[in-house]
C-alpha cells in the first residue's frame, strides 16, 4: 500500500504547497490569462451549458486567443467532483474560474477559500466572498415580453407553462409572464406543469402534448429542449418560444420569439477586469439592459401592433423606466404584495416562492 | 381545478405514445431473459439506437432507414455483451452495467454533430375518415406507424413463444440450459440470437424517442427509460401481453400525472413517480405464488463441459 | 476449432496478471480512440494514469483518490459478500441514498446543537438507513422467494424520488432562498465528517473502508460464516447439507451490504458533498458493482480496484480539461476498461485449447 503511505506524507505539505503554487501561477502566466469554466451538462446540450460555452468562446474570440486561454470541463456533477474540477484548474494556473450552475455554490466557496489569488465567478447563486463574485440574469424581464405576446396571441385563452425545478427563478418567470399576459388579456388562464428537471426531452414532449390537449394554444417553457416546439408544430395552430437559445430552426412558427441567455458581454467584461487588475467581487443581476437577457427576433406570425407593443415593453425595461413587478400586485391568497406604483425589491424577488393573484395551483414545496 | 379539460380519449391516445418506446425495449429484453440471459444494458443499447437512428434518418432523409439503423446499432452493441457473456463467460450483471456506461459514452461521441438538427418527420398512418371518428378515432386510428409496429411486435412475440417450435426451444434454454444442451440444442447460439434481438428492439425503442416522440438528439435523452423497461419485464412476469398492459400502465401514470398537474391538482410528483416501482415490487411478491414466469436459468452462465 | 476448457482450479498467477493485462489493452484501445478524436494518445494516457500519481500536482490528486475511491470500496466490499454467495444486491445506490438521508436527517433535526455524540449517532443512523432499505429485498426473498436483483433495483428509483422529495421539501435549507438542497453539514462542526489528517483526503469514511476491508478479509478467511458464504456460492447443495441456513445468509449478506452502502452515503453527505441535494447520488452504488468484480470479489482486490476506478475518474477529468477531450470519450474509455477486465477474466478460469478436427 505504497500509495496510501505516500498520500499521508504528502498530506501535511498539501495546504502549504497549494497556496505557494497558486501565487506562483499568477506570476508564471503573465501574458496569457487562463480562464476556467465548469459546466453541469455537455457543451452541446442545446441549452444552458451550450450557451455558457458559446459565450465563453465568444469571449476568447473578442479578447484574442493570444491573450486568453480557455479550459473547461463538462458534465461535472454538483458536489465534491465540482470542487475537484475547480481545484484542478486553479492548480494549473487558472486566473479566473466561472462555475455555471447553482449547485456549484458551496464547492466554489470552498475552493475560493483555498486559492485567494484566483478569482471565482458563480452563476445564479447568492454567496460571495473577497475573490468570489455571483452573477445572474433577470430572465423575468424577458418573460414580461413573452407574456405580452402570449396574452395577445392566445385564442383559447389557455396558456400552457412547462416549469422546470421549483426555485425562485422559475417562479418569478411564471409570475412575470402571467402578469403581462393578464394585462393585455384579462381572460387568460395559465396551466402549469412542473417537471422537476431542466432538460428531459421526452418528458417535455409529453408535457407539451398534455397542455395542448387541455386547450393551450400557446406554450411557454422554462426547460431547455426543443421538444415542446416540435410538439406544438405537430399539433398545428400552437405557438411557443425558444428558451436559453434562439431555437430558430422552429421559426417563424411555432417559435415566434425567444429568450436567449447571452453571457458573452459579462464574460468579456470580467476577464478584461482580471487582465487589467480591476476585478472586484460583486453580486450582480443583469437583464435586457446589458444584453444578458436577449429577446430573439419576433417573427411575422405575430401581428405588427402586438410586436410593437412587445418591443415597447422591452425598451422600457431596458431603459429602466419600467419594472415588470410594479404594483398594484396581490399575492395568490389576495393579500397585498405591492402597493400601487411600488416596485419589487431584489431581496424579495431573489426568494420569490409564491404565485401572484390569479394563478391557480400551488408552488411545489 | 378543472377536470373537464381532461379528455379521456386523448389521454389514452397519448399514453399509447408515451408507452411505445419502453414497450418495444421491454419486449426485446423479455426474449433475452426468456433465453436465460439478464442484460442490464438496455439503457445503453437504447441510447445507441437513438443516436444511430437519428444520424441515419438525418443523413438519408428517411425515418424508415433510421429505424433500421437503430435496430442495427442496438444489435451491434448487444453483440459486445454476447461476446463477453457467452464466449468469455463474464458475469452478466457486471457486463450489462458496463454496456450501459459504454453505450452512453459512445452515443454522445457519435451524436456530437447532431445537436440542434430537426430529423425528417415520420408521417402518421392515414386511415382516412376513420381518424375523425369520435373517441375511437384518436385512440385507434391516429398514430405513427411505430405505435402499431409495437403492438404487432407484442402479438408476434406472444405467438412465437406460445406456438412455435423455436419459441419452445428458446424457453427450454432459459429454463434449464444443461438439459437443453443434452437434448442437442445449441445453447450459446440461441442465446446470442436472443441477445441480438433484445439489442435490436432496444435500439428501435431508443429511436422512437429520438425520431418521433421528441424528436431531437440530446445526450442521455433516453433518461432512464431502459431501466424502466427492465422493471417492466418483471412486472409482466415475462408474458408479452402483460408487457403491453404494464407499459400502458406506466405510460398512463406519467400522462395522468401531467394531466392532473395541468388541471391544477397539487400532486406530490416525486411520490407519484415512485408508484410504478412500488407496484412492480408488489407484483413480484404476488407472482412468487405463481412461479410460471421467471426463467429458471436467468442470469446463470452456461459452459458446456466436454 | 477453439474451445475453452475449465481449469480444475482458477489460476492464481493469471488472476494477478489479467487485470494488468486488461489495463494495458485498454491503454492501447483507448489511445486509438483518442487518436481518432485528434488528441495526442500518449499525452492522454499519461495524464490519466501517471500524472495523478506522480505528476506535478500529485500531492493534491493522491488524497482525492481516497475521497473518490473510499465510498466505492466501502460499498463494493459489502456487495462482494453477497456476490460470493450468489446473492445479487444491485440496489446499493438506493441504500447509499437512504443512508445519507438517515444520517443527514439526524444532523438536520439536531441543528444547531453542538455535541460530541452527534456524529456517532449519524453513523449509526446511516448504517441503519442503508440496512433497512436492503432488508426489504432480503425479507421479500426469504419470505416469498422474490428476485432480489429486481426488487433492489426498483428500490433505487424509489430512493431517488424520495431524495428529491427531501431536497425540495422536508430537508430544504430554510435559509437557502427557496433553492433545493439542505443545509451544508460542512458548516455544522458536530456533524461534519472531517479529514482525520488535514489534506490527506482520509476522512472517516475512507478509514471505515479500510477497516471494512480488513474485517471482510478476516471474515472470509478465518471465520465459519465466511466459509459458509464461499461454500454457498460455489456449491449450494453441499452448503445445505453442511448445515448452512440460506435464509440467514441472505439476511446477513444483504444487511451488511446495505449497512456499508448506507455508511458510505452518510460519510459522503456529511463530508465531501456536505448537503442533501437532488443530484446527491452520482452512481457510486452502480460503479461499486463493477469495482467488486474488478477486485475479483476479494477484499484486497476491491481496495485496489476501487483506487484504480477512482484513478480513471480523476485522471479522466484531468485529461478533459488539459486536452479538451469530451467527457463522453472518458466514459467510453472506462467502459472499455471494464469490458477488457471482464473479458480477460476468462483466462483465469479456463484454458484455451486449439484442436484440429470436429468436436461437439
UniProtKB/TrEMBL annotation, chain B:
Entry annotated with the keyword 4Fe-4S: no
Keyword terms, alphabetized: Cell membrane, Membrane, Transmembrane, Transmembrane helix
InterPro entries from the UniProt entry: ABC_transp_permease
Organism, scientific name: Pseudooceanicola marinus
Domain of life assignment: Bacteria
GO molecular function: transmembrane transporter activity
Any GO CC annotation of this UniProt entry: plasma membrane
Transmembrane segments: 6-28, 40-58, 64-84, 96-115, 135-161, 192-214, 220-238, 245-265, 271-289
Protein name: Branched-chain amino acid transport system / permease component
Automatic annotation (TrEMBL), chain C:
Subcellular location field: Cell membrane
Protein keywords: Cell membrane, Membrane, Transmembrane, Transmembrane helix
Residue intervals passing through the bilayer: 16-36, 67-87, 94-111, 117-140, 149-171, 202-220, 249-267, 273-293, 300-316, 328-347
Keyword Transmembrane: yes
Keyword match Ion transport: no
Top-rank taxon: Bacteria
Pfam families xrefs: BPD_transp_2
GO molecular function: transmembrane transporter activity
Record protein name field: Beta-methylgalactoside transporter inner membrane component
Source organism (scientific name): Pseudooceanicola marinus
Taxonomic lineage of the native organism: Bacteria, Pseudomonadati, Pseudomonadota, Alphaproteobacteria, Rhodobacterales
